[in-house]
Automatic annotation (TrEMBL), chain A:
Its main location: membrane. Residues 67-283 form the ABC transmembrane type-1 domain. This is sn-glycerol-3-phosphate transport system permease protein UgpA. Belongs to the binding-protein-dependent transport system permease family. UgpAE subfamily. The lineage of its organism: Bacteria, Pseudomonadati, Pseudomonadota, Gammaproteobacteria, Oceanospirillales. PROSITE patterns: ABC_TM1. The gene is ugpA.
UniProtKB/TrEMBL annotation, chain B:
It holds the Pfam family BPD_transp_1. This is sn-glycerol-3-phosphate transport system permease protein UgpE. Its main location: membrane. Residues 79-270 form the ABC transmembrane type-1 domain. Belongs to the binding-protein-dependent transport system permease family. One of its GO terms (cellular component) is plasma membrane. Keywords: Cell inner membrane, Cell membrane, Membrane, Transmembrane, Transmembrane helix, Transport. The complex is composed of two ATP-binding proteins (UgpC), two transmembrane proteins (UgpA and UgpE) and a solute-binding protein (UgpB). Gene3D superfamilies: MetI-like. It is found in: Cell inner membrane; Cell membrane. Part of the ABC transporter complex UgpBAEC involved in sn-glycerol-3-phosphate (G3P) import. Probably responsible for the translocation of the substrate across the membrane. The keyword Hydrolase does not apply. It comes from the Bacteria.
Automatic annotation (TrEMBL), chain C:
The keyword Transport applies. The keyword Nucleus does not apply. Keywords: ATP-binding, Cell inner membrane, Cell membrane, Membrane, Nucleotide-binding, Sugar transport, Translocase, Transport. Residues 4-235 form the ABC transporter domain. InterPro entries: AAA+_ATPase (IPR003593), ABC_transporter-like_ATP-bd (IPR003439), ABC_transporter-like_CS (IPR017871), ABC_transpr_MalK-like (IPR015855), ABC_transpr_MalK/UgpC-like (IPR047641), Mo/tungstate-bd_C_term_dom (IPR008995), NA-bd_OB-fold (IPR012340), OB_MalK-like (IPR040582). It comes from Natronospirillum operosum. SUPFAM superfamilies: MOP-like (SSF50331), P-loop containing nucleoside triphosphate hydrolases (SSF52540). GO terms for molecular function: ABC-type transporter activity; ATP binding; ATP hydrolysis activity. One of its GO terms (cellular component) is ATP-binding cassette (ABC) transporter complex, substrate-binding subunit-containing. It holds the Pfam family ABC_tran. One of its GO terms (biological process) is glycerol-3-phosphate transmembrane transport. Signal peptide: none annotated. This is sn-glycerol-3-phosphate import ATP-binding protein UgpC.
Length: 293, 283, 360
């Protein structure tokens, strides 16, 4: 019944909200409107002429193979990042859930990558896979494979996926572990009394109870892979080789800032916004089931 | 412990230790590389053990001795820029979010819902998806190459507002009522009661937002052309492309270590707050 | 010290819900008024309007001779004790108690003095430096009381202050509250839905139902002469037995065929043949000889409480429940048929339609 607690001031709340609202308006809503507007225009690179072209930018995009390639790359990339990051984290959390000795130490040693910038992670992994000097490339060579992410599309994808997922492991780990520790002991004890072994217990009891968290993490990881990994690509593959790692966000940047194709970049932004909004709504349906609005 | 199976416990520890090694490998590589000479990266396999050049590398990078970074400013200066950016973003976000949440929860006023939704929208629009128009707005406001431009556009935060809102909603109404009877007006209630009760949430958010601010990459890349505003995270990429063919890996990794250090320290020192703060997001 | 007057108070919530229909109440100086009623009847709403936490939709509210409708809670010179205590979790007991005084701008040593004095009265001096989290429920309750009395207000307001305590502590604190209120002789409004609390604490009791006042008066008056069937049923535990009846001459026909001769009543004639509700409290049904019996109770369940025994049963040929309270020394077994006689001085007749009391 929060309806009761009300301070009666009429003006004060607007003052309290003003900074947030002003920033939101100026730096979020205005640019978003701008993007929408520009997505209907074609402009020459110098801004001398502009023409209102309705959906031409969008039609052009969707008839462009490169754009479809970007979409495919983004989905493959995000899927791999989300899946591998979550799988490793789940395994580690399942192991850490029950250890008694050294639990805190393990936790501490597993969570610090959260603090590392994606671009920093990418640069280090890039070095480790460096075809001529990298330790992992060397390992692959001893196993009889010549690693070269400069020419091999799959290998380039592998490096950016590993670097991006690596950074997310700690985040996923924290959530999985918290989720497991919130499961009432009695539930697991009851299953143990029914005679199911530890593996069976995990799949039949712990895992289903974790599924809401897993779903939440899936969305978070996909959003992360979509939008926060620009630095990973930009510092390493630059979208290459060929177009093998040119994700949607990277392409927006390239077309806008390098190609100076405003209309197309704006149209891509609009598509991305629709995508994020969809993802966020899904996420919110989950997080804020309790929201009264 | 439900049952005692020694082999299971052993497997657990084994997997965890393996995990830590895999997860820790990159930092090992970075640390090792930062102590070696650039010559050790020219051919053969990269060094896997510490060299003698550590102090030298860090000194050169921190002071930008002989323009080792290929730009006009030193790593220490760029770390300072990163620090300012991280602090302003963290403190700014916390401040405006806690005030908004306070307004939304404790007042009733026309357009409350509209405001709520407007803030909600910011959650949906990460900088990355509206790069160009945001850049144009910032440019037209004359905020390129300034601390204001680096920070203010990133300060609005729906996530933090939601966290505070959730927290405020969990505080019993009667506390505010008791304060009203005790003669506390809204700002006094905020200062004397809400703020002290929020310290844990603030600390948790601070960690998360500090990291967020420190690790910004795309935004500083776009709006800074003046080297004086470069941040440590964004300069790494420049180093990669600087010396074509002969990449100065020892210098890059030294810079990398410096770029990781502050946020990692913050996470480790404030681990407890940070973990709780993160997990709260999902609630 | 002050009187409190509620004149034609109405409350409609923003969602259109009418919580209080028309409340009129004159509270005397130093009087302890208890509001009781079932959940949702508007007790808290009324109290909160007096406190100023809720705006009145209509009507006038006076504390002393000042109209306070438009004053902030802090300007009304009241103090309130909440059900969940509402102690500030991050402040020590002393700071909790002194916060209101501090906001009034009193000097620190004066605050300290007043807080210590109040703490002494409540025997919580040794807790002054503790945080609320470190206290037991009873101690928190005392601190909440302390916060109210330090300010020496004109009116104490209590909203179910004891309902979070266990039964034993509740009795103890009830007595404590009574003692304090008498000692300070401060006007008090106390909300509860526990009728024992209501009966024991009140100088006057206000029974509310569905946003309306059913009856106001000293507890025993209400107990003995409930004006409405609702009040009759609400006060007393176990509750009053009600049965449909009809007046026929000088007698009452209960449930068709149980005949009860009524004492001489002038009004009887005018109700002849009318449908009414007959009520009698369990303790006013006495076991008697066959010859005197008004009812025969077939016992289904027996609850021996020591001092008394409660008999739950039904009248043969009917399935409506009836409860009788008997002295504890006699033993009963299930299936007994007990002849009972209604205490003629203490029976209640209500109009079947309006549920208003009929007999004197
Ligand atoms: N803010 C509000 N908005 C709408 N209706 C409300 C609000 N607060 C209370 N009500 C309604 O007003 C009626 C009276 O509420 P009130 O809290 O006064 O009841 P109460 O007698 O104190 O009950 P309880 O014994 O459960 O505390 C209830 O039906 C309640 O649902
Ligand atoms: Mg109530």
């Amino acid at each position: 019944m929060h309806d009761n607690v009300v301070f009666n001031n009429k003006v004060l709340p607007y003052f309290l909200l003003a900074p947030q609202l002003v920033i939101t308006l100026v730096f979020f809503i205005w640019p978003a409107g701008q993007a929408l507007y520009q997505s209907f225009l074609i402009e020459d690179a110098f801004g001398f002429s502009r023409e209102f072209v309705w959906l031409d930018n969008f039609i052009y995009l969707f008839s462009d193979d490169e754009y479809w390639n970007s979409i495919r790359v983004t989905f493959v990339f995000s899927g791999l990042v989300a899946f591998s990051g979550m799988a490793v984290a789940l395994l580690l959390a399942a192991m850490a859930d029950r250890v008694i000795k050294g639990a805190t130490t393990y936790k501490t040693l597993l969570i610090w990558p959260y603090a590392v910038a994606p671009v920093v992670a990418a640069v280090i992994w890039w070095l480790m896979f460096n075809p001529s000097i990298g330790i992992l490339a060397f390992l692959s060579w001893t196993l009889g494979h010549q690693w070269n992410h400069y020419v091999n599309a799959n290998e380039a994808m592998a490096v950016v996926v590993i670097a991006s997922a690596w950074k997310q492991i700690s985040y996923n780990f924290i959530f999985f572990l918290a989720g497991m520790q919130a499961i009432p002991r009695s539930l697991i004890e009851a299953a143990a009394i029914d005679g199911s072994g530890p593996f069976k217990r995990f799949w039949q009891i712990v895992f289903p109870l974790l599924s809401p968290i897993a779903f939440f993490l899936l969305v978070v990881n996909v959003v992360y892979a979509f939008f926060e990994t620009f630095g990973v690509i930009h510092a390493t593959t630059l979208g290459g080789p060929g177009n093998a790692t040119r994700t949607l966000v990277y392409k927006v940047y390239e077309d806008g800032f390098v190609g100076l194709d405003m209309g197309s970049s704006a149209a891509q932004s609009v598509i991305l916004m629709i995508l994020v909004i969809t993802l966020t709504i899904i996420q919110f349906k989950f997080i804020e089931r309790k929201v009264q609005y | 412990m439900i049952e005692n199976r020694p082999w299971l416990t052993a497997v657990r520890h084994l997997v965890l230790i393996l995990g830590i090694i895999v997860i820790g490998l990159p930092i090992w590589i970075a640390l090792v590389a930062s102590t070696n000479t650039s010559a050790s990266f020219v051919s053969g396999v990269m060094p896997m053990w510490f060299g003698e050049e550590g102090l030298n590398n860090f000194r050169r990078v921190l002071t930008n001795e002989g323009r080792v970074l290929g730009v006009g400013v030193s790593a220490s200066w760029m770390m300072w820029n990163s620090f300012i950016m991280a602090m302003v973003i963290a403190i700014g976000k916390i401040t405006i979010s806690i005030l908004s949440a306070f307004a939304i929860v404790y007042f009733r006023f026309p357009f409350r819902r509209t405001c709520f939704w407007m803030i909600f929208i910011t959650l949906m629009l990460p900088v990355e998806v509206r790069i160009l128009p945001t850049y144009e707005v910032v440019a037209s406001l004359g905020m390129l190459n300034s601390y204001a431009g680096l920070t203010i556009p990133l300060i609005a935060s729906a996530t933090a507002t939601f966290l505070f809102r959730q927290f405020f909603l969990s505080i019993p109404d009667s506390l505010a009522e008791a304060a009203r009877i005790d003669g506390a007006g809204p700002m006094k209630f905020f200062k004397d009661i809400l703020l002290p009760l929020s310290v844990n949430n603030i600390a948790a958010l601070f960690v998360i937002l500090f990291i967020y601010g420190w690790n910004q990459y795309l935004w500083p890349l776009l709006i800074t052309t003046d080297e004086n505003y470069y941040t440590i995270v964004m300069v790494i990429k420049r180093l990669m492309t600087a010396g074509e063919g002969n990449v100065p890996w020892n210098i890059i990794m030294t810079t990398t270590v410096l770029a990781m250090l502050p946020p990692v320290v913050v996470v480790l020192v404030m681990q407890k707050f940070f973990v709780r703060g993160l997990v709260e997001q999902e609630k | 010290m002050a009187t409190v007057s509620l004149r034609n108070i109405k409350k409609t919530y923003s969602n259109g819900f009418k919580a209080i229909h028309n409340l009129n109440l004159e509270i005397e100086d130093g009087e302890m008024i208890v509001l009781v009623g079932p959940s949702g009847c508007g007790k808290s709403t009324s109290l909160r309007m007096v406190a100023g936490l809720e705006a009145t939709s209509e009507g006038d509210l006076y504390i002393g001779d000042k109209r306070v409708n438009d004053l902030e809670p802090s300007e009304r010179d009241i103090a309130m004790v909440f059900q969940n205590y509402a102690l500030y979790p991050h402040m020590s007991v002393a700071r909790n108690m002194g916060y209101g005084l501090k906001n009034q701008g009193l000097p620190r040593d004066e605050i300290r003095r007043k807080v210590e004095k109040a703490a002494r009265v409540l025997e919580i001096e040794h807790l002054l430096d503790n945080k609320p989290k470190q206290l037991s429920g009873g101690q928190r309750q005392r601190v909440a009381m302390g916060r109210a009395i330090v300010r020496n207000p004109k009116v104490f307001l209590f909203d179910e202050p004891l309902s979070n305590l266990d039964a034993k502590l509740r009795v103890q604190m009830r007595i404590e509250i009574k003692r304090l209120q008498q000692e300070f002789a401060t006007t008090a409004i106390y909300v509860t839905h526990d009728q024992v609390e209501a009966m024991t604490l009140a100088d006057r009791l206000v029974v509310m139902n569905g946003g309306k006042v059913e009856q106001v008066g000293p507890p025993l008056d209400l107990y003995e002469k409930p004006e409405t069937q609702f009040v009759a049923g609400f006060l007393g535990s176990p509750g009053m037995n009600f049965m449909p009846a009809r007046i026929q001459g000088q007698a009452l026909l209960v449930q068709g065929d149980h005949r009860i001769d009524l004492p001489d009543m002038a009004e009887l004639a005018q109700w002849d043949g009318r449908d009414i509700t007959f009520g009698v409290r369990p303790e006013h049904l006495e076991a008697c000889s066959e010859a005197e019996a008004d009812f025969h109770l077939k016992v289904d369940i027996i609850e021996p409480l020591g001092a008394d025994t409660l008999l739950y049963g039904h009248l043969p040929g009917s399935d409506s429940l009836m409860i009788a309270e008997q002295p504890g020394k006699r033993r009963y077994t299930r299936g007994d048929v007990v002849p009972l006689r209604v205490d003629r001085e203490r029976l209640h007749l209500f109009d079947a339609e309006t549920e208003q009391r009929l007999n004197e």
